[in-house]
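REVIEWER CHECKLIST
Item 1: Sequence provided? yes
Item 2: Single chain? yes
Item 3: Sequence as submitted:
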Amino acid sequence: MKTFDKKEVAKEGLKVGLKAFILTFGIAFVIALIINISVIEHLQDYLQGTLSQNIGFRFGMVIRTTSILMNMAVFNTSGQIQLGLLAFIGLPLFSFYLADRMDNKKEGMDDVGFFIYGVASGVYTILLMTIALIGKGTFLGVNISFVSIRNLILTFVISFLIQVVIGMNYDANRIAGVVATRWMIRLSLGVSGLIGIVAIIAGATKVTTNPLLILMGILLLAPNLMVYVLFMMMGIGIDFNSGLDKLLAFGNMNLTYTGMPVGVRIFLMILFIGITLYAISRIEKEKFLGGLIVFATLFSLTCLGMAYCTRINLGLIKGLMEVDMGINLIKAFLYPFVGIFLLGGLWQAIQRVRNVIKS
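Item 4: Structure as written out by the authors:
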């Protein structure tokens, strides 16, 4: 990006943050409108008692639904409940992409860009918390409030990371290691996503042959399964809380990493090693160490963000069992970080051997 002074950085960040918020709000509002017209009004026919009271099309309910959608898109929580469906992140991802598309296309991601991302994230966070404050209240008998210090911080971090991920996907990047990170994210998620979609189709066809239901399952579950498969490629499995783990064991279901066939685990690990070595090969020789550090840090932070965003905690269901599942956050950062450095050393050794053979 071109050089900005402080006022220009603030102005650019304000513009991007405001654009992204307006776009996100507009899309979420339309979805909320459809939900309230086609779904919530008809719930009155099925719900009885206190849950059926005050259900119907009202502007206040549309705003509340909009607030819920926008907060779920950045994985904010209302109380203990966290529904980490990665598909929701498409809202702010698409909005930030459009808001800063022209500048990213020309300049990519550089040092000044990080300051603009920070200002834009701050603007987006303040506006989202304002909508959360306006939209707090009762939704289908459940008290909803996304206003908290935790959600304030999380919104800022998630919106900042979204902009970093978008910025990495442009050719005009000047920071060593960013291109390698871009290749790593694209290839690893592409491969794991393909595996995840095949797994969903294979599993869904055993339950239903309805193509619409299968498509809905792919749209909602494929992003999460894509992330879980990616972590399995690194040797990290899904952690379940003790109650859910016992229930799965009772049903003779082993969804842990160690429960997978050894051949599948080896195959996934070979895929990860191959993709990582290819990404490392994209780092410039003259800036290899610095590029490797940037690559390892950016990709590990991306993995950490994906691990957090795909965590599902439904709390105590009907007083019987707590449902909590997801990827261990420490492993999500350390495994790829250490693995990239080890494979970086291996790549350097391979290059030296090749040079010796050539000479």
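Item 5: Key structural point noted by reviewer: The chain has two domains: 6-168, 178-358.
Item 6: Recommendation: ____
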